[in-house]
Specification:
805 residues, alpha+beta, Agglutinin, subunit A, Hepatocyte Growth Factor, 6 domains, 51 strands
Length: 805
């Protein structure tokens, strides 16, 4: 009996050392899954366990089909934290009640990471459902967490993607890094509804890679037929109840796959996008159309020509096309009809109206580039036309706006009467321009005879002797006008080595003039949207504005068709050169950045309140902030600025100009601009300086639809300092940083009256004891009429008619 007792004791001790195996489809407290075991759903459809991909040296916890041959993985838990292959991995319920993965002596590498009163280790259970959904539940029906809300690279029936229209946050699927590596890859797929309707996208990194367009080849219908979409606060996309899966593979193809179609005993590809290179997003750049039947060759739509001819010949089309002739923004503009086109991205819906009413709405808006009207639904496009393609089966016509002379040149006008009217208008305009030119030269000649030679040296004279007194009066600062030969000598005939950059109005060169030393010379492009009006406007404004935070205009050249401005030279170029370059941003320490912020605020305050002229800039952005040797900021580019009367608070325009992402909603939607529209731009600029991130880089990302949305979210969560650029986060003045973020959020509030003035902003930034009011929600989402704002906050691109910048 003694021997029997000993054997019994040994058996009991041996059993106590074995792992506790869970029931078939659940894991409870004290139970675990290791490399040699798995959970199987109640119906046997899915399995959960650890797996190692082919040719990989890492272990992952995943879910796969249990009854389909091979291991088709549909979900991975620890894709961002792979486990070395020779390690011991355990999946279990943690002490806090969460689903967790441990390896090597209780090292936590993944958790469901939920909190709540119901979450305790004794009350939660992990269960694998027969739908393939891993859930953490309290009791039988209370789901605290589920894998279906956290998809990886695959969608299966019951999973969902979402887009929250209030927060801008979206759930997407993200490709594997490679077929053997489940880590997050370069591509993601999801939905967006910022422009009033649900759309599907594939993104590569932060940029659009492929757009499912509902007007061409049934692409959107091809993918949408597998989903149901609900539209409330969230836009949810859920697979229809079919035995299929949607996979985004590592090279960016989205595939809808069905098992065992027609007895094939394999996964059959029912739908794939993209199918050809021409379908990739904006292959031919602005106003360029990709030809699907011509192997992806690009062409400019009628009335346009390649921006860079040499690049175009060599097959580099991404810069796209520019207008052959600038729009007049008057009755001479016409529309060219293009059949069977994939419609451009970023359409704005104007609701139901006739085609004639739709055309009228477009022609009235100087920024409107095209329109279409199908089944009485009117859509227009503002600025650049992106992602055009030929050879679509769509029956919708796209009407592209061009100068009236293009219709005559191409023989596309509807009748001889219309051609005759346009021709008469051209002749009258040309005659008027000639008479005006003769009058100007006569006036100049007369003044020279009366006053005698008024020359500073052999090649220059005060510009006031040339410019209209209505623009530059006798009390204005005297600018020096240089000859074109002077300018050519100063820039070595505009040599490429002297080129500092190129903006929407033309290139800027470094030059040397004996009287001034190093200078920056802006040569306005002949096809630039900045015509004589903007040129004279900039002359007048800068000649009258004197402030250390505004760039100084030193001279000009007006000769033939050439219009040139000469500025003080800024050796450190523009702020964006430093702010968005990872190797240079380290030079922008906290003290320097805050000094730049204060300098810009002081410059804007001067423009709005203390200068001789009350000025609304209308194009305040990071690339228009120049830096001198001491990194003192100077506001530049006044071509779009407007002068207000001392008692004027607001003005309206049909010609909306500015830069995507910086413009206030009231300006985009209604053309209304004021000091408060400049304040909105300052708020966006302030956030970019503090975070080191471009506002445009946030569009179509999982973080938020805009920098404004991200900042708002962090403020609501009480985690504002996480917004500060990591390179200065540890060394910044936390009080000033917090105040600066709050000021930025006050500036970008949706309603103009809620925004502070520049006077208030300067005081709030400088006085650390002054209380700052609580900000209201910024203009980062759709709200009734303000939906159009989203069409202008996608890319950092200045635009204005007649030529987008």
């Amino acid at each position: 009996m003694e021997l029997d007792s000993v054997l019994t004791l040994v058996l009991v001790l041996s059993c106590s050392c074995l792992p506790l195996f869970p029931s078939q489809n659940t894991v409870k407290t004290g139970e675990s899954i290791t490399a040699s075991h798995k959970l199987v759903s109640a119906g046997g459809s899915f399995a959960l366990g650890f797996f190692t991909p082919v040719n990989s040296t890492f272990i992952y916890l995943g879910i796969w089909y249990n009854t389909i041959p091979g291991q088709t993985v549909v979900w991975v838990a620890n894709r961002e934290s792979p486990i070395p292959q020779n390690s011991t991995a355990v999946f279990t319920i943690g002490d806090d009640g969460n689903l967790v993965i441990f390896y090597e002596k209780n090292k936590l590498i993944w958790s469901s990471n939920v909190t709540g009163e119901l979450l305790t280790s004794n009350s939660t259970v992990g269960a694998l459902l027969d739908t393939g959904n891993l859930v953490l539940r309290h009791g039988e029906s209370n789901k605290l967490w589920q894998s279906f809300q956290h998809p990886t690279d695959t969608l299966i029936p019951g999973m969902r993607l979402s887009f929250n229209k209030i927060s801008g946050l979206r759930t997407v699927i993200n490709s594997w890094k490679s077929n053997q590596d489940p880590q997050p890859g370069n591509f993601s797929f999801g939905i967006d509804s910022t422009e009033g309707r649900t759309r599907f996208y594939i993104w590569k990194h932060n940029g659009i890679y492929y757009r499912f367009d509902d007007s061409s080849k049934g692409y959107m219908r091809g993918i949408a037929s597998y989903f149901s979409v609900t539209d409330n606060e969230n836009v949810l996309l859920t697979l229809a109840p079919l035995k299929l899966r949607v996979v985004l593979n590592p090279i960016g193809y989205l595939q809808v796959m069905v098992w065992n179609r027609n007895g094939s005993n394999k996964w059959n590809v029912e739908f794939q996008a993209p199918q050809v290179k021409c379908e990739l997003y904006a292959q031919c750049g602005p106003f360029g159309s990709c030809g699907i039947r011509t192997g992806g060759l690009c062409r400019c739509v009628t009335g346009f020509e390649p921006k860079f001819s040499k690049d175009w010949i060599n097959g580099k089309w991404n810069e796209g096309c520019v207008r052959k002739r600038a729009l007049g923004c008057d009755s001479r503009d016409r529309f060219l009809k293009h059949e069977n086109m994939k419609l451009p991205d970023h359409a704005i819906s104007l609701g139901n109206m006739s085609i004639k009413e739709c055309e009228t709405q477009c022609i009235r808006n100087c920024s409107c580039s095209a329109y279409t009207c199908s089944k009485n639904a009117c859509f227009i496009w503002l600025g650049d036309l992106l992602d055009l393609a030929d050879d679509s089966i769509s029956r919708i016509s796209l009407h592209v706006r061009v100068h009236g002379s293009e219709l005559i040149t191409n023989g596309l006008t509807g009748n001889s009467t219309q051609r005759h009217k346009i021709l008469i208008a051209e002749i009258v305009s040309a005659t008027f321009a000639l008479l005006l030119l003769i009058s100007i030269f006569a006036l100049i000649f007369k003044r020279k005879r009366l006053k005698g030679p008024d020359r500073i040296d052999g090649n220059s004279a005060p510009v006031s002797s040339v410019l209209s007194g209505s623009l530059v009066g006798k009390d204005d600062m005297k600018l020096v006008q240089y000859s074109m030969q002077n300018i050519r000598d100063a820039t070595n005939n505009f040599h490429e080595d002297n080129k500092l950059g190129e903006g929407g109005f033309g290139p800027v060169f470094k030059g040397f003039l004996a009287e001034l030393g190093d200078v920056a010379i802006k040569r306005l492009s002949r096809r630039s949207s900045q015509g004589l009006e903007e040129f004279m406007n900039e002359l007048k404004l800068i000649a009258n504005l004197q402030h250390k935070n505004l760039v100084s205009l030193l001279g000009c050249c007006v000769e033939g068709e050439e219009k040139i401005l000469i500025y003080e030279y800024m050796p450190n170029c523009s702020l964006d050169k430093f702010l968005f370059d990872s190797s240079l941003k380290v030079t922008l320490n906290w003290v320097t950045r805050f000094g730049i912020i204060e300098g810009i605020a002081q410059g804007m305050l001067y423009l709005h309140k203390y200068s001789r002229l009350k000025v609304i800039h209308r194009d305040l952005k990071v690339s228009n902030i120049l830096l001198d040797r001491e990194m003192i900021p100077k506001i530049s580019d006044f071509g779009m600025a407007r002068i207000f009367g001392t008692d004027q608070t607001q003005a309206s325009t049909k010609r909306v100009v500015g830069t995507y992402g910086y413009m206030s909603p009231e300006y985009v939607v209604y053309g209304q601009f004021s000091e408060k529209s400049d304040v909105f731009s300052f708020g966006v600029l302030l956030l970019e300086i503090l975070t080191g991130e471009r506002n445009s880089d946030f569009f179509m990302t999982e973080i938020s639809e805009s920098l404004l949305g991200w900042a708002w979210k962090k403020w609501k969560e009480g985690r504002m300092l996480e917004l500060i650029d990591p390179s200065i986060r540890e060394t910044c003045d936390r009080n000033k940083a917090t105040r600066s973020i709050l000021v930025a959020l006050l500036c970008v509030q949706e309603i103009p009256i809620d925004r502070p003035t520049m006077s208030d902003i300067v005081v709030m930034l400088s006085n650390e004891t002054m209380p700052i009011p609580e900000p209201k929600q910024p203009a980062f989402r759709n709200s009734g009429q303000s939906q159009q704002l989203d069409d202008f906050s996608i890319n950092e691109m200045t635009f204005s008619l007649p030529v987008p910048r």
